[in-house]
Amino acid sequence: MPKRIQEIVAHDSMTPKIGDVEKAGSVIVGNLNYLLNQARANALWPLTFGLACCAIEMMSTVASRFDIARFGSEAFRATPRQADVMIVAGRVSKKMAPVLRQIYDQMPEPKWVISMGACASSGGVYNNYAIVQGVDQVVPVDVYVPGCPPSPDALLYGLLKLQDKVKRLRHNKLIELKPREQERVNV
Amino acid sequence: MITEVGRDVIRPILTGMLLTARRLKRDKTTVFYPEKKRQPFPRTRWRHVLKRYDNGLEKCIGCSLCAGACPAKCIYVEAEYNTDEERYSPGERYAKRYEINMLRCIFCGFCQEACPTGAIVLRSDFELADYSRPDFIYTKEMLLEPMPEGAEAPTAKPVS
């Protein structure tokens, strides 16, 4: 179970009482879970993973007209080690699928995937032998954004949906050890 | 020497900064999306809507021409015959099931062009993102526009 923060009191001479509305700015009362989720949701760094024409719309989401930086996601990382969310933008060919999976595995937890566009989400018009019919066959997808390609505001809506999901995340899952790991712990 | 510095260093910087200063007067280009939406173009193609006549009857006659025209094969239509007791559309048949897979759809508008009665149109609602794949099968109930005011039940008399 996560620790519950009862109160965080700022260290100044006029330490306010709890419930003091005027000085409420210096006291944060909250659940550690909530604070962590807020921090995660408002700094979702995407991985640069443009595969086709959807990537053009993804780039234009970063540009000044739509400005994804308003949601803390402007830092597109070129390495999976520093990324939180993978925006799969474009059709995934069968040859690209293992690469996609490897890059996903290299991302640190917690990680999320946005499937952007018709081709990444379901194959779209490319119902043929070369294209993976939906990127959810390779990696678990959190948010699907339909469109061909989705306009930048549609992608922003998808990102906001993902932020909602991240904010609802709970960290009270028990970690179950496999039998061999259990032995190691007992010794 | 000093004249060269002025010509090669200070003057270009000033020119650049002047341009920046002039741009400051302009309006911001950023669309503050979740609060304000940008004005959609008149022919924007996003979410589909199934239209009705003014008396509440559906325009769709279940001919499946939209499904035939669809390049992604994302539309499924199942037609059924109208009867005098149970009438949904003015024609002989109506669409009993009308489903669109929004994930496969590429919003090309071919269905809109193919429709002989103008029943299916693409409108500007782009907020379609969701969490799970089954949620993207849009059924007829989701696509059909609400009954116009003053219209009777779906079993209204046909137009003509």
Key descriptive features of the protein:
heterodimer; A: 187 residues; alpha/beta; four-stranded parallel beta sheet; two-stranded antiparallel sheet; 6 helices; 32% helix; globular; B: 160 residues; alpha+beta; three-stranded antiparallel beta sheet; two-stranded antiparallel ribbon; 4 helices; 23% helix; elongated
Protein model, in words:
By secondary structure, chain A is α/β, with parallel strands linked by helices. In chain A, 32% of the residues lie in helices and 14% in strands. In chain A, helix 1 packs antiparallel against helix 5 (152-167) and helix 2 (54-62) crosses helix 5. Chain A is globular, with a radius of gyration of 21 Å. The two termini of chain A are 25 Å apart. Residues 1-13 of chain A have low confidence and may be disordered. Chain B is α+β, with helices and mostly antiparallel strands. Chain B has helices at residues 2-24, 65-69, 110-114, 140-143; strands at 48-50, 75-81, 93-101, 120-122, 137-138. Chain B has a three-stranded antiparallel sheet. Chain B has a two-stranded antiparallel sheet with strand order 1-4. Chain B is elongated. Chains A and B meet through helix 4, strand 6 and helix 5 of A and loops of B.
